Amino acid sequence: MTEILTTVVQHTVCSYKYCDTCFEGMKNESKGDNIVCAYCTNEIKEGELNTTDLDGDKEVTCEHCGGMFIAKEFQEHLNNCKVYLQTIEEDIKKNKFKDIQKTVNRSTFKCPFCESKNLERKDLITHVEYEHGDCPGVCPICVVQEYGDPNYVSQNLLGHMKHRHSYDMDTYMAYGETDDDVLAQVLAASMNEL
User: Fold this and answer.
1) Which residues pair with 11 in a beta bridge?
2) Mean pLDDT over the full length of the chain
């Protein structure tokens, strides 16, 4: 958010300058304890601050609506500027969920036979072995893989899991990458070994 700086608080020991809003925030965070300078990390003692008021009567132009305002009143204008608020709203709508990607939990699994859940691969295999034995079922480890088929029923699920899932797949799988990307990385790595 655009703000007009009207007051500067300077720590005279290191000459670091804070805007008054930031310094007030630091005071509130300290909750009565000693305030520590964010720049030099020394305790700020009484008499080590110099406060300077800037020209709050200077005229500034709002870059959003083009209106002219006195600097000390500009923040209040921004809080109500229709053009500025509309710009923010459009940016939020445009970027909403843009960087959020659907992720798949490939670390823990639910037993396909009972209500046991949050089992790591090794624990799932042990659980199925001791609680359910050789039963047909859908492999919960395969289902979350990119190639997984949630409709495929293995006739001996325990045997399948012991054979196919004797290691953690994420050690050997490059999730989210194409075969061409992986091949290019392997070739580049092999060229570096020569």
Assistant:
1) 49
2) 82
Whether 4 and 20 have beta carbons less than 8 Å apart is answered as no
Q: Tell me the average pLDDT across 144-156.
A: 88
**CA-only gyration radius of the chain, Å:** 31
CA nearest neighbour of 44 among 56, 32, 30, 34:
34
Give the single-character DSSP code of 171: G
Backbone angles phi, psi at 127, to 5 degrees: -60, -50
Residue 36 pLDDT > 50: yes
127 three-state secondary structure: helix
Predicted confidence band of residue 1 (pLDDT cuts 50, 70, 90): very low
In this prediction the pTM is: 0.41
Q: For 154, which DSSP code?
A: B
Tokens matching residue 155: 């006739």
> Residue 142 is encoded by which pair of tokens?
């395969």
- Give the chain's domains with CATH numbers: 7-95 (3.30.40), 108-167 (no CATH)
Q: Quote the CA–CA distance of 135 and 178 in Å, as a whole number.
A: 34
Q: What is the pLDDT of residue 106?
A: 80
**C-alpha–C-alpha distance, residues 79 and 177, integer Å:** 44
